[in-house]
Amino acid sequence: MGSRRILSKVWDGWWRGPRVRPVHKTTGFGPEARRQLQPRGSSKRSGSQGNQPFPGLLQPENLSREELVDVLKASVVDQKGPLVTLNKPQGLPVTGKPGELTLLSVLPELSQSLGLGEQELQIVRAAGKETSGLVLLSSCPQTASRLQKFFAHSRRAQRPTATYWAVTDGIPETSEGKIQAALKLEHVDGVGLVVPVKSPSRKDILEGVKRTLSHFRVVAMGSGCALVQLQPLTVFPSQLQVHMVLQLCPVLGDHRYSSCMGTVLGQRFLLPAENTKPQKQVLDEALLRRLHLTPSQAGQLPLHLHLRCLRLPGTRPRDTPIELLAPLPPYFSRTLQCLGLCQQ
Q1: Spatial CB neighbours of 80, under 8 Å, sequence gap ≥ 6
Q2: Does residue 287 sit in helix, strand or coil?
Q3: Residue spans of the chain under pLDDT 70
Q4: In sequence order, which ranges of the chain are alpha helices (DSSP H)?
Q5: Which one, 67, 193, 237, 344, has least CB within 10 Å?
Q6: CA dihedral sign of residues 230, 332, 247, 222
Q7: What mean pLDDT value characterizes the chain?
Q8: Phi and psi dihedrals of 86, rounded to 5?
């Protein structure tokens, strides 16, 4: 309750327009959100979560615009002043081509559904398509600009503002540390892939190579896997997935970059990323048993990367930052339980 009072105070301090009705509902990926994801006219019913390999996994691509708006409304974590915080389902793209169903494309309808009237929401910060977790929206352009400047300043000062949780296939050699890598975006057989660059030259930097940095900390480990806290200090597509592959610990459900790692006689090694095509992640038999998955089900395993926490500035410069939290998706929690990964 204390955190809600603080959030209300901070957000009201930024707000300079009419008040927005607070949202009183259960947040996250609860039964209401899952019911909304069932396409109209479908006779399929999901069983109990205990019988599902990926409980709570949503399929936004099967939804109409109206159904997606209902799902996003049910996923609101908090609404105070001009700010709306969502717990985005995995698989929902934030942006896309004209005509595609994305978070951005339904913001006008979501704004109306949340009672914002003519004050249309805009995206301030969001988890990527394959990542679940927090999305920060604002109906006030000045507030959005102020927050984006805060995030940019924090990156320059190397102060993390976003905290992700990931389940990895493999355990990092050290319990915490930093990962530095120069990355670039390449197109391999028509597929855009992020690949590491060794010792980038000045010309490489000018041509789009970027030096990236992430902090990591092992929260728990067991069954040859780990729950890892990740805090990116730079912004680059797929940065966290590639960083974990470089640690020989790909994120569970990473069907794009896990193929860049090979194994011979139990020893892991990196393969040339630019010559490796994406393929379904391959898990060993022991891990499949722990997860209660068949090999074919493992090929549908969702990416276990969740934007769990965002830090926002307080009302005044000396105020303690405010933390927004997003609950884990049910399939993520199931994996933690199956692997015995409890926060330490």
Answers
A1: 7, 8, 11, 12, 20, 22
A2: helix
A3: 1-51, 343-344
A4: 2-14, 31-36, 65-74, 107-113, 141-156, 202-206, 239-246, 285-291, 295-298, 330-339
A5: 344
A6: positive
A7: 85
A8: -110, 160
